[in-house]
């Protein structure tokens, strides 16, 4: 797995260094640079999909049938003509004028900027929804600057096309280019963990999906992946609509959808301000609503809101200036109102909204009485990429079964996550599945839970077989996940001791390679142990597949119980506090690990100081 944070920091540092040496303003530089990231990302996806197409490609007369644009649309990918492919652009000769290149309109091209503009125009010809969206101001760049940018973004790490990486890198760059835009009205990028959780619980299959605060389009991309993984073609079964007030975000959304082969209608600017406009006339028509709206927006004009409708439970509190001073319950009302009679909604919301008072409480009570509030999930700090605030995930389902119609599932996941680094947490793929499994059991979908348990066994078995290690096979071919965890811990402890002895015994020249060899083996088993622990975490709570309330984690509450809690939808108010568990970490071992990390950081610091000193000497300082 690539380190996205390290990658985007490196890309930014390199790109910004080049801008500093040019005469371009940030505004002139922003979208063209994002356009180059789009080109690189689109090319990565093209090569991956092309390989899939060629696997089963028929042949005639011994020759494989040529790949065509329609093959890519069938695989939800954007076709790129040769002159728009990144490999072509990055390998162009230095002297463009002497290369005899002709653009799509038959005119000669004399600069690299003209060639890149032509590439963007060729891509727009492939996708109607991209018409007029892609940047075409590359002649503002010198050939030297543009060639260096193409080289910087020719990074193999961008070949990992899983999820919304372009959105992540886009938001990082945008926050650097224009902090005012990036943080305006609480706008920030939705982390993949939260997007996947929303999609997994809503399970989109067919129909109309609206995201009326769509940002860079992560909800659409993830929904497309979900539908395609189910064996369906997203563009045949789903219709995507988006609203996005910030123009930059809307452009990126269209680029992001196009690179994933998705079509949709995205409106931006003032007409896409959801507080005042139902831009697509979809009230009461949506099968799915997904969104991460800006939190706690103030100064919303109450009269304009009321005139725009979509407020089935009435207006939230209005101040003396005739403004709604907190827009959270406007969003919540819209999401409910947009749903059709069997629609589902999933969205991110500020934690404070689950038990806010005044008119908010009245709206929440009316909402709960509908029986359509389905699941509430509390999310801890540090999930957002640029913010440290906690949040909640809300889910509505207008087609809830009668058995659970007067109940709400509360999940407190604030203490369940994987640490990415000091300022960022996420749910791993297995943790996402485990939380999803709680929802399956609540809905009575035991077969999905059973399939997940088997998936755990299959994964552990396949990892042991791939390692071709009898000790590992012996450890994982057991019925009990608890036994598997215990056995893997023993194997790992023994391997640590062997590694320490072998490294100490190795000669000076071999020490590093021996350390690397054992490090790889240790990491392999640690990964297996992590997965086995997640399997054990799930099975010890729900056994062979019966939902039960788990102290500190989940609680199925009736509307009567919610009334007793003052109509609060805060999961922590219902699930209680779990007993403190031994985390199983060996203190001495962890302290030794921290000491090694500290020494490594100290060495890096010393190297950096030496470099700075040398640079200052060269500058005569």
Automatic annotation (TrEMBL):
Residues 7-152 form the N6 adenine-specific DNA methyltransferase N-terminal domain. It is an enzyme of class 2 (transferase). SUPFAM superfamilies: S-adenosyl-L-methionine-dependent methyltransferases. Pfam families: HsdM_N, N6_Mtase. Its EC number is 2.1.1.72. It catalyses: a 2'-deoxyadenosine in DNA + S-adenosyl-L-methionine = an N(6)-methyl-2'-deoxyadenosine in DNA + S-adenosyl-L-homocysteine + H(+). PANTHER family: TYPE I RESTRICTION ENZYME HINDI METHYLASE SUBUNIT, TYPE I RESTRICTION ENZYME HINDVIIP M PROTEIN-RELATED. Belongs to the N(4)/N(6)-methyltransferase family. This is site-specific DNA-methyltransferase (adenine-specific).
């Amino acid at each position: 797995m690539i380190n996205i944070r390290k990658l985007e920091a490196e890309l930014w540092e390199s790109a910004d260094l080049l801008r500093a040496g040019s005469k371009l303003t940030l505004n002139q530089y922003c979208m063209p640079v994002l356009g180059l990231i789009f080109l690189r990302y689109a090319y990565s996806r093209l090569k991956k999909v092309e390989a899939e197409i060629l696997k089963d490609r028929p042949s005639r007369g011994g020759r494989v049938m040529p790949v065509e644009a329609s093959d890519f649309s069938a695989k939800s990918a954007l076709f790129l003509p040769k002159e728009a492919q990144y490999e072509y652009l990055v390998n162009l000769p230095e002297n463009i004028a002497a290369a005899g290149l002709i653009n799509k309109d038959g005119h000669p091209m004399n600069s690299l900027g003209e060639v890149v503009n032509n590439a963007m125009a060729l891509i727009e010809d492939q996708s109607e929804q991209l018409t007029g969206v892609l940047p075409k101001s590359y002649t503002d760049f010198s050939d030297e600057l543009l060639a260096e940018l193409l080289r910087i973004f020719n990074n193999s790490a961008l070949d990992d096309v899983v999820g919304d990486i372009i959105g992540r890198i886009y938001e990082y760059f945008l926050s650097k280019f224009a902090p005012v835009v990036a943080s305006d009205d609480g706008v920030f990028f939705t982390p993949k963990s939260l997007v996947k959780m929303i999609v997994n619980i809503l399970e989109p299959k067919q129909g109309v999906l609206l995201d009326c605060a769509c940002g860079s389009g992560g909800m659409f991309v993830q929904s497309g992946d979900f539908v395609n993984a189910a064996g369906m073609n997203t563009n045949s079964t789903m219709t995507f609509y988006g609203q996005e007030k910030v123009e930059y975000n809307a452009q990126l959304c269209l680029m992001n959808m196009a690179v994933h082969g998705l079509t949709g209608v995205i409106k931006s600017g003032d007409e896409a301000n959801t507080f005042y406009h139902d831009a697509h006339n979809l009230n009461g028509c949506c099968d799915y609503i997904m969104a991460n709206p800006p939190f706690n927006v103030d100064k919303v004009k109450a009269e304009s809101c009321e005139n725009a409708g979509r407020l089935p439970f009435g207006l939230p509190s209005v101040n003396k200036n005739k403004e709604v001073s907190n827009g959270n319950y406007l969003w919540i009302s819209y999401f409910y109102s947009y749903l059709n009679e069997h629609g589902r909604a999933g969205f991110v919301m500020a934690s404070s909204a689950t038990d806010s008072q005044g008119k908010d409480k009245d709206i929440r009570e009316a909402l709960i009485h509908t029986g359509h509030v389905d699941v509430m999930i509390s999310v801890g700090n540090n999930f957002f990429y640029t913010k440290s605030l906690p949040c909640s995930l809300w889910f509505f389902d207008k087609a809830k079964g009668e058995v659970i119609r007067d109940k709400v599932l509360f999940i407190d996941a604030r203490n369940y996550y994987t640490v990415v680094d000091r300022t960022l947490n996420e749910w791993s793929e297995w943790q996402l599945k485990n939380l999803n499994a709680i929802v399956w059991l609540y809905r009575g979908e035991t077969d999905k839970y059973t399939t997940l348990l088997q998936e755990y066994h299959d994964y552990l078995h396949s990892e042991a077989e791939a390692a071709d290690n009898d000790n590992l096979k012996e450890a994982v071919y057991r019925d009990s996940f608890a036994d598997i965890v215990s056995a893997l811990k023993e194997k790992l402890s023994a391997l640590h001791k062997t590694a320490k002895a072998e490294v100490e015994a190795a000669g000076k020249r071999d020490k590093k390679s021996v350390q690397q060899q054992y490090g790889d083996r240790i990491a392999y088993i640690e990964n297996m142990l992590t997965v086995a622990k997640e399997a054990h975490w799930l099975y010890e709570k729900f056994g062979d597949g019966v939902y039960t309330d788990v102290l500190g984690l989940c609680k199925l509450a009736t509307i009567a119980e919610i009334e007793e809690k003052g109509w609060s939808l805060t999961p922590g108010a219902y699930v209680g506090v779990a007993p403190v568990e031994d985390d199983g970490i060996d203190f001495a071992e962890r302290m030794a690990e921290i000491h090694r990390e500290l020494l490594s950081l100290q060495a890096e610091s010393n190297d950096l100081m030496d470099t700075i000193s040398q640079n200052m000497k060269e500058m005569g300082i």
